[in-house]
Amino acid sequence: MKKIVKYILSAAVVLLSLSACDKILDSESPSAFDAATVYSNYALTEGTIFGITEAFCEVNSYRGRFLPWYGFNTDVEWYNTYKPGDGKSDIAAYDCLPNNSQLNLSNGPFPLMYMGIERANLVIEGLREYGNCDTRSDMAYLLGEALTLRAMIYYDLTKAWGDVPARFESLTSETIYAKKESRDVIYKQILADLEEAIPYLPNPGATTATSRTDRINKVFAEGLYARIAMAASGYAIRPEDGAVGTGDLGTVRLSSDPELQKATLYPKALNYLKAAIASGSASLEQNVEAYWRKMNNMDNLTAGPAFETLYVIPFGAGRGRWNFTFAISSEGASITNGVSRGGDAGPLPTMYFKYGENDQRRDVTCVNYKWNKDNTIEPAGIGKWFFGKYRFEWMDAQPYTGGNDDGIKPVVMRYADILLMAAEIENELNGPSGAKQYLLPVRERAYKGHESQAEAYVAAISSKEEMFQAIVDERALEFCGEFLRKGDLIRWNLLKTNLDAAIDDMLALRDLQGAYAGLTGDIAYAYADDSKSIKITFITTEGEVPAGTEISTGYVNKYDDAKSTGFYEARIRGLYTYDPEQHMFWPIFNDTMTNSQGYIKNDYGYDSI
Questions:
Q1: 8 Å CB contact between 102 and 65
Q2: What pLDDT sits at residue 561?
Q3: SS3 536
Q4: 459 or 25: whose pLDDT is higher?
Q5: pTM for the whole structure
Q6: Cα dihedral sign for 252, 250, 256, 417?
Q7: What is the DSSP secondary-structure string of 38-97?
Q8: Who's near 47: CB < 8 A, 6+ residues apart?
Q9: Average model confidence (pLDDT) for the chain?
Q10: Cα distance between residue 536 and residue 139, in whole Å
């Protein structure tokens, strides 16, 4: 059967309407370009690359289901509404069951991600056959881009669902149904794909395509290799070997595959990270607030030596629900054109206190005020914080008059992660001495103007264990609100340990005990000159009230039993419902299992629910 470009579009229907697969796969259009014409032409092939990333933008794909729901609750981030039995609240609280109302969809993220994979498979096959990639660097770049995009989608599938079907060839009528495969098979394939892709890819800023953060570049692919290697060699719940897709309960353990051990993967990953750093083709942008102000606008896509962002989800101006979901809450203010937007999730109330006083990340990341309908702002209450990295008031268009889709392009990876992954792997392989050179720049940027504090902090680290804990802490501070934390906690085998510690920490804050015993429970606050932000100071028993501030008495614990504040005991203990180790992954949802014709079965105990 002749391969034609029309199959790229028909793949969506193949995956969403499996019952019609034979008819679709046998269809052919005489007006369609054939594969030889497309995959020997750069412009036409580039269009098929855009077809892969278009899958991110489908209503219930990355745009409306995966990105808004994957990644919390953790020890630094949580969903701001506690309502057991509600589909949204249950996802966050590790109570996401196969019939979940938000994700059990025929056009949900699982089938739509496989649509992107099918499109990538077709592009990869076409370029291998017709692209002359051995002699044409431009076509080799597109092959590297397709391989990297497929690897990214598979990584996202495994971090959300664990073991999933492995499809690395385009569909035929004989292969339309597939069982789950061990994620180890997928990890090994996508790591090998990245090893092939990296030499094909120019550095950020080196070509027209790689001067944009919505196109794949070498440093991102090198970082993605490291990110996947750390997950593959780390902890996670796994069925017994050979028992994937049998309903096995699983245990939290490392892979038993010798090719996926740290001793094998970490040296390769560190070499890629060192190459990325040595290339000088990306860097830390030194003003944290300026960086995030820029990332709240749709047209800031420049990549290169002076820039930090390596890759973003390529939503267009009319796509993506990022600020809609995660920006500082607007309860109908003019900045959101009179419509309520934002505030669905935020930092844990204790997160603010983890930052040093001179850490410029604190007031950018942790915001405790909201916008009211009358366009004023006020403190939001101790139990409801917002990610200050995302703000409608930082968007160029004022007021924001768009609909649910604001065009903000979520950051997939930035240079800070390259440095902190290098620090972690260097420490694991060789100890803290060499790791300090990678941790220090991130810490110094955070303490801009107070670099000596950062230098003293890093210099004091004397053991491998201390360095590991410093990296655990630094990743929390640096990436809060970027939803990397859940994957980090899983691979470190710290998910339940740190969630339990976070619950105890929040209870201590509520009761002004432990680390918070020196607080009075009151805050002082002052408005910025432009009335677009509030500076909050938690008053201590020995501190003075800052001049020119207003006081809110009993701010920390006066709402102990008021459910509207989100800081009562059941809410705090509701950080998770089911054991997060048993339910660290989502189940494959009922609609997908039904359409799999019995080929797919859930593990981790979901098959008996």
A1: yes
A2: 61
A3: strand
A4: 459
A5: 0.94
A6: negative
A7: HTT-HHHHHHHHHHHHHGGGSTTSIIIIIHHHSS-SSSSEEES---TTSHHHHHHTT---
A8: none
A9: 92
A10: 54
